[in-house]
Amino acid sequence: MRAILTYHSIDESGSPISVSREAFRAHVRWLASGAVRVLPLADLITADDAHDAVAITFDDGFLNFFHDAAPALLEASLPATVFVVPEHVGGSNDWGGQSVPGIPTLSLMDWKRLGELARAGVSLGAHTRRHRDLSQVRGAALEDEVAGCVERMAAELGHRPTTFAYPYGAVDALSATVVRDVFALACTTELRAVRRDDDRALLPRLDMFYFRERGQLEAWGSAAFRSRLWLRAQGRRVRRLVQGRGPRVTGRVAGGHAA
Ligand SMILES: [Zn+2]
């Protein structure tokens, strides 16, 4: 089984975007144990299915990544990708200028820290310019959120990102086409393992919020792990239908929260 793991913030709030420091440390111990291969995102997608493998991703670029996640990942030589929101770098996750109930408003890394991470080997991907729901923007605004994001990151960091994550996991046919033209890989929030025939512009991920309790990630590959994954995916699907929002990914099933 191959899967892309999603984290957002390492903090103690218990919010849907949060994994505690202790839970993250336990994940790192397991990831560094050799139980599965941990590959850079691009390598995971081209790897065969003969070996279990994961790629580690962090959305939004929280400052706590710099202090609480990067040191542990780098010490264990675990590759990771951070998806950055250029117009909020050095600011906070108050997307649209307002906070969301249940989601903590937290500081994001500045360009200096992002540059340090890139030099240390952390991969930086794009997460739109302003953390916009791409299914809701069209024309020049859509172009600006996707291609404009690359240009801003290249200007600040001297390096063009080749990977992308959709804010809120929100994507439709048009935005997927625009993203596919610009990036080698793009990640949704569809909760499942990677399949050989997956569209590289619509890659699924496993949100580690659902695997934050002790032993849940470590059960990787077991029947219990697979049934837990299936149940979580069903639960998210049902909640979306109840909330009248429907699947986020056109023609596929996906979920997502305010991140
Ligand atoms: Zn996000």
3D structure, described in words:
The protein has 259 residues and is α/β, with parallel strands linked by helices. The chain has a single domain (2-242), classed as TIM Barrel (Alpha-Beta Barrel). It contains seven helices and ten strands. The chain has helices spanning 21-31, 41-46, 63-75, 111-120, 139-157, 173-182, 223-242, and strands spanning 2-7, 9-10, 18-19, 37-38, 53-60, 80-84, 123-126, 163-165, 185-191, 203-207. Zinc ion binds at residues 59-60, 127, 131, 167, 259.
Q: Total number of helical segments? A: 7
pLDDT average, as an integer? Answer: 92
Taking the sheet with the most strands, its summary is: 8 strands, parallel
Order of helices and strands, N to C? EEEHEHEHEHEHEHEEH
Query: CATH architecture, please?
Result: Alpha-Beta Barrel
Find the count of extended strands (DSSP E, 2+ residues): 10
How many distinct folded domains?
1
The name of the CATH superfamily reads: Glycoside hydrolase/deacetylase
Q: Name the ligand types.
A: zinc ion
Shape: globular
Instruction: Write down the Rg.
Output: 17 Å
Q: Looking at CATH, which topology would you report?
A: TIM Barrel
Computed structural class? alpha/beta
- What is the CATH first-level class name? Alpha Beta
Beta-strand content: 15-25%
Distance between the termini: 26 Å
Uncertain ranges? 250-256
Instruction: Report helical residue fraction.
Output: 25-40%
Task: Give the SSE layout.
Layout: E1 2-7, E2 9-10, E3 18-19, H1 21-31, E4 37-38, H2 41-46, E5 53-60, H3 63-75, E6 80-84, H4 111-120, E7 123-126, H5 139-157, E8 163-165, H6 173-182, E9 185-191, E10 203-207, H7 223-242
Helix pairs in contact: 1-3, 5-6
Bound molecules: zinc ion.
Zinc ion is lined by residues 59-60, 127, 131, 167, 259.
